[in-house]
Design brief:
homodimer, 251 residues, alpha+beta, Alpha-Beta Plaits, 2 domains, ten-stranded mixed beta sheet, PsdUridine_synth_cat_dom_sf (chains A, B), tRNA pseudouridine(38-40) synthase activity (chains A, B)
């Protein structure tokens, strides 16, 4: 028995999210089907976390246990040959200790939320970024707001009560706004994220950029532990899971 | 009666090309439908040229004659509100002389052909670039080949005998290869292009990059006027019509 870890990129546009569900047509279903075609054994994979319908990934991570003797360096090519074109195994497959678990072993995750501020949306990126043309967003205010999210906080204000979490406390290691041409990217790295957390952060930042929520109010909005006081949940397709990190080093 | 000119960007993935055809589902059909919804009059548009199925545009140009009194600055927003999300009117609509014709008045067109050279294709750009992972392409050889295309030539070797052209002579004003990360972009600007010309140039350049066609043989391949001696027609989805220029200045 081996435990194999892989990294996968996907365009989530055509899927009902990452995690397998009765209705099918999820990224996990597609990957498990590819593994079954390859190994002739039904195999369950464990993802680092779910992503919602239309949410994307550049570096989602999953692992699975297998009796297959396929050489570790062959897995990527073999699965890619069997996967649809909107899902790609990237980087090298790795054999990991049997107790490695993509979700429980994850130390840090990085998400990106992309906003297009040009007058017309970009037809080639229409499924990958929120289009917000008017009026101009105040980047300085947005950066002041982002800084207040860094650190250990109770993020009850920034989640949807979708399913039970033992705790709403999470640590954000970094939160930054990058600008290139008409594109604004919000990058957030943390030890974990609550349901809809990055999308609510994005929706709140847009309100801050519009001057509808004061830039310096984020700390008090966190303390209020009240979802209704922050911004709306931004559309799913602007969100991309960039990376999942398993190293102990938190620098 | 007014003659109105517009610029349009489209993701050609879901269309059978630009030009209207009996089967429908073309970009022209979609634009004419939007104009009809807006003006309640069936209106024929004239594109600067056809683009094939799955070929894209950042700056296709079309014009149409209309009795509508809608103000010129309102056309873009009004049509965008009625167009599917993979087609966007960009820039400003312009009123042009009644005899302006998007195809016959065009002075220069610029196309881009994009190639992705990374080991795995980019899931977010899979419909917009040719994936050519192995082996490494010789950029220097490709540039030497491109230079020989510049100037006035008979491009019979670089076209598919699809429909009758009065002449196969065209002038290429510039042809260059740009590289950014794992992406190679071939930009070609000319006074006109034969059917499949840019895709055959791209297919030939890849052969040159692979060392299968000598870099200095392009001039003799042009002189041979023989389609079978050059490279294959590269896949349509790597091709994008970047711009159509109507100014007299050829600098």
């Amino acid at each position: 028995m081996r435990n194999i870890r892989m990294k996968v990129a996907y365009d989530g546009t055509g899927y009902y999210g990452f995690q397998a569900q009765p209705g099918g047509n999820t990224v996990q279903d597609a990957i498990e089907q590819a593994i079954e075609t390859l190994t002739e054994t039904r195999t369950r994979i464990i993802g680092s976390g779910r992503t919602d319908a239309r949410v994307h990934a550049l570096g989602q991570v999953f692992n699975f246990h297998t009796e297959s003797r396929i050489a570790i360096e062959r897995w990527g090519l073999a699965l890619n040959a069997r996967l649809p074109h909107d899902i790609r195994i990237v980087g090298r497959a790795e054999e990991v200790p049997l107790d490695f678990h993509s979700r429980f072993s994850a130390k840090r995750k990085t998400y990106r939320y992309s906003i297009c501020t040009s007058q017309y949306h970009d037809v080639f990126r229409r499924n990958y970024e929120l289009h917000h043309p008017a009026p101009v967003l105040d980047r300085h205010a947005m950066r002041i707001a982002l800084e207040q999210l860094v650190g250990e906080h109770d993020f009850t204000s920034f989640t949807t009560n979708h399913y039970d979490e033992r705790s709403h406390v999470r640590t954000i290691y970094s939160a930054e706004l990058r600008e290139e041409g008409h594109r604004l990217d919000i990058f957030v790295t943390g030890n974990g994220f609550l349901y809809n957390m990055v999308r609510i952060i994005a929706g709140t930042l847009i309100r801050v950029g519009q001057g509808k929520i004061p830039a310096d109010s984020i700390t008090s909005l966190l303390e209020a532990r009240d979802r209704v006081k922050v911004g709306p949940t931004a559309v799913p397709y602007g969100l991309t899971l960039i990376d999942v990190d398993y190293s102990e080093n938190t620098d």
